[in-house]
Amino acid sequence: MRAVRTPRGQRSRLRTGAALMTLGGLAFVGYAAVFLLLNFTGTFLELGIGPDQVDKRKAEVEAFSPQLSHYISHVHIALSGFIATTGLAVAALSWYGVRREERWAFNAAVSIVVVGLAIALPAHYPWGLATPWHLGPVYLAVLLFLAGAVVAHGGMRSGGAAAARRT
Questions:
Q1: How many CB atoms lie within 10 A of CB 39?
Q2: How many C-beta atoms lie closer than 10 Å to residue 163's C-beta?
Q3: Is the Cβ–Cβ distance between 144 and 20 less than 8 Å?
Q4: Is CB count within 10 Å lower at the N or C end of the chain?
């Protein structure tokens, strides 16, 4: 049997959606870079977190406990690494898998974003850390990614390219 060709409009939606998903993933990498940079500046706190949310500055934390300051810094560094690698994974899955209509890559990219957000976001709200400047960039990256996912999904054949190649 021969492979079924995807109509041009579907291919265009798939490429556009995959590109938006990729940009969303790369936006997470950018957020991680800012997160990392702020750790090494006098700011010490995350983007969008200020004296209204945390009443101590870096110098005050260091004066109280240098070990606590080092611990917070190490958590910022580690978390920025995980945010960046998550963004890179999502971007790679989107660009190299979703564009090829690999349903597993689409499902993996969407699952990574959903699980990461489901774990990370709720903790921001009880303690007043969900400021617009803190979570706003994340929500913009997520909206970009989700818009891409919707567009890409609309461009996928029901069985995916891998299934079509096996026929």
A1: 20
A2: 14
A3: yes
A4: N
Residue 150 token pair: 């919707």
pTM, rounded to two decimals: 0.87
Rounded-to-integer distance, Cα 33 and Cα 125, Å: 23
Query: What digits encode the pLDDT tens for the residues 34-59?
Result: 999 999 987 888 889 999 999 988 89
Cβ atoms of residues 90 and 24 within 8 Å:
yes
Site of tokens 């934390």 = 61
Question: Which positions of the chain have pLDDT values less than 70?
Answer: 1-6, 158-167
For residue 153, give every residue at least 6 positions away whose Cβ sits within 8 Å of its Cβ, in sequence order, or none.
17, 106
The DSSP annotation for the chain comes to -PPPPPPHHHHHHHHHHHHHHHHHHHHHHHHHHHHHHHHTSTT-SPTT--TTT----HHHHHHH-HHHHHHHHHHHHHHHHHHHHHHHHHHHIIIIIGGGT-HHHHHHHHHHHHHHHHHHSGGGTTTT---HHHHHHHHHHHHHHHHHHHHHHHHS-SSHHHHHHH-
In single-letter form, the type of residue at position 65 comes to S
Give me the helix-helix angle, 132-155 and 103-120, nearest 10°: 160
